[in-house]
Amino acid sequence: MQRTPLVAGNWKMHKTVAEGLQLAKAMLPGLQALDGVESLICPPATALMPMSALLDGSGVALGAQNLHWEAEGAFTGELAPQMIAEFCSYVIIGHSERRAIFGESDQAVQRKLAAALDAGLAPILCVGESLQENEAGRAAEVLTSQLRAALSGVTLNKPGALVVAYEPIWAIGTGKAATPEDTNTLLRNVVRPTLAGLFGDEIAGGMRVLYGGSVKPDNAAAFFQQDEIDGALVGGASLTAPSFVGIAQAAQ
Ligand code: PGA
Questions:
Q1: Per-residue model confidence (pLDDT) at position 164
Q2: How many angstroms is it from 49 CA to the middle of ligand 1?
Q3: pTM (two decimals)
Q4: pLDDT in tens, 51-63
Q5: Which atom of ligand 1 is nearest to the CA of 12?
Q6: CA 73 / ligand 1 centre spacing (Å)
Q7: What sections of 126-240 are H helices per DSSP?
Q8: Which of 115, 158, 174, 178 would you label with 72, given CA atoms 20 to 30 Å apart?
Q9: At what angle do helices 192-199 and 139-150 cross, to 10 degrees?
Q10: Ligand 1 atom nearest 92 alpha carbon
Q11: Which residues are catalytic?
């Protein structure tokens, strides 16, 4: 099954609008020169509108980092799916920072994911085990349970409607990436079969599964060589043009 690699930059809470536009402009020539790789930028919400104007027609996709599941109402500080869909084609759902710092439950992740799909957005669903769970040998169990909870009641008509990102929590922002081989084994034996159980072999086989957690230009190629790894969700290394473009080039 041929899957176009996706390299996504999650800027988290970094960059003002002016700084973000400057960074995206610096990345654009390198990202536009890519062949057979899709690139995606997920800046803070304040930058979405101007960024969509900058990226319009560039071939570089735009995504948000979060949304609320309700269509509108008294939800101070939140953004509705349709507000995100005005500017974006992707949205990150269930990042471990949202789960851990903002108390997002599996149920909230499920609601957000369903609302994103309804709004025509492609969710990037993040799943991953903690260090403690990993050391206890519970990674497979945690991943299966997070996937089943987030995707319960979800129907998909095409594989491109959803992206999954495997992000072991202990690898995020630590400089300690998982090994490409271990990641590939987990995706092959746990993530892809769980997706196949939910959506069937054809959809699961065409769906992109990314790795995230301390991906850098110098370790990216080793991940992308693995047959189950279809790209990366990049945090820290997406904050400079040479490192993000370097990672995207490694996916080529
Ligand atoms: P990192 O973050 O690349 O800085 O480890 C990855 C992520 O949180 O998506």
A1: 98
A2: 24
A3: 0.98
A4: 999 999 999 999 9
A5: 8
A6: 32
A7: 131-135, 139-150, 180-186, 192-199, 201-206, 217-224
A8: 158
A9: 30
A10: 9
A11: 95, 167
